[in-house]
Every structure is written in C-alpha cells, then in structure tokens.
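Need the bound structure for flavin mononucleotide, inputs here:
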Amino acid sequence: MAGSSPRRVAGVVTDVCVAFLTLSAYASAGRIVTAFALCKCQKPKEKTMSLKLQIIICSTRPGRVGPAVANWFHGFAQSQGLFDCELVDLADFQLPVYDEPNHPRMQKYEHDHTKAWSRSVAKADAYIFVLPEYNFCPPPSFTNALDYVYSEWNYKPAGFVSYGGVSGGLRSAQLAKQWVTAVKMMPMFEGVTVQMPWTLIGEDGRFQANEHHEDSGEALLKELLKWAEAMKPMRSR
Ligand SMILES: Cc1cc2nc3c(=O)[nH]c(=O)nc-3n(C[C@H](O)[C@H](O)[C@H](O)COP(=O)(O)O)c2cc1C
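Answer from helper R.:
Posting the output first, comments after.
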C-alpha cells in the first residue's frame, strides 16, 4: 500500500475483519441450521422403527410361489426403513380347519397351534398379507387364520400384496379387505398387484420386481405407517 495514509490502511483492515466475522457468523448459523435439519430428518425414523410389521405368506400348498413374492417384499420393506419387519409363514403354524371350542373373543384357547398363532399375531402393529387368488377368492388358509384369533387383530392396519393370473389377485384382495374389517382391521386403499409372478422368478428362486411393484409397494408402506401410528393409541383404550 505504498502511498496510502495510515487512516486508509486502518479502514481496509477493519473492513477485512468485519467481512471475516460476518462470514464466520454465517458459517456457524449454517452449521446450526444443518444440525437442526438433520435432527428433524432423523427423528421420525427413530420413532417409527419401533412399529412392527409382519409380512404374512398366506399360501400353504407345496410348490407355492408365495414365499418368493413375500421374500422380495420383506427385503423391500426393510430397505424402506419405516418398520421393524418380520416375515411370517402361515404354513409354519399348521393350523387345521378352525377347531377351537370357544369364540376367539374369549381368548380361551385349547390348542397349542392356536396359542402359537395368537402370540405371533399379537406381536405386530401392522400386517401385509401376501395373498394369492384361488377361484376369484382369498385362499382358505387366509380366512381360516383370520378366524382363529380376534382381539389380536383389532385396531391394526392391513395391506395386501396380491398375485394371480392377469387379475394380479385383485379380486382376492378386494374380498379380503371386506373380510379383515370383521376383526376390526383397517384395510389400505393402496396395494401391490403382481400378475403371473411365476414368470418373474429367476433361476435363483428370487422374484424380480419391476418399477410398478416397487412404486406401489412404497406408497403402500407409507400409508400403512400413517395408520399404524394413528391406531396404536386406540388399542390401549
Ligand atoms: C385352487 C386354485 C385356484 C386358482 N384360482 C385362480 C383364480 O381364480 N384367479 C387367478 O388369477 N389365479 C388362480 N389360480 C392360479 C394361482 O394364481 C397360482 O397358482 C398362484 O401361484 C397361487 O399362489 P401360490 O402358488 O402361492 O399358492 C388358482 C390356483 C389354485 C391352486
């Protein structure tokens, strides 16, 4: 600054200091805003991950395709991070055609298979039924399993991943929606329909989902979460 007066030099130094302080203040504010935004973004995840979602394989026959579809949806639901997910296979419970002497509302279960099923159903906050279509209807394994318990289903939301021929199991899902209301479940508007899933299973036995399955699956899970959160307090009343 040859030729500059001391006053002018002092003025430039002051300007530089003010600029530096202003930038520091903005940077700190930015860090605070970022930290706040991160807290806000992470909070719902922490809160909702405690809600349990059961993905239930409803077909039980030998050679069924249900497990391939259900395994895909289970992995997909886990990747969405909205629920704590569990895969449940109805076949594991070996429920005979309804054989309890008392109405399920009384919860006076006599058989071990009913007690095991009751414990399993009671654990969840929401359900996805992976549902085939048999003769335009849900399979009897599904309606039988619904009948076995009552209070365990009450005030919980239910979604459907249906599959079949060209219908994608839609007729089955539509009937199942009406059915679940009899045990006070709330059926979801959103749903996944899979046409001819057997054509989408690779040599490794894995179901190859397409964009439509994933988009509808995401919409279903988001809606299910809203209802699961809203309905949880209803069960403690
Ligand atoms: C008893 C029976 C009835 C069926 N009825 C229908 C039907 O009404 N509509 C349809 O789209 N597919 C129907 N199918 C074909 C099923 O969609 C197909 O077999 C599917 O793989 C069944 O699911 P699963 O393999 O998990 O049991 C029927 C299959 C069976 C075994």
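Comments: Residues 32 and 124 are 38 Å apart (CA to CA). Residues 6-48 form the longest helix (43 residues).
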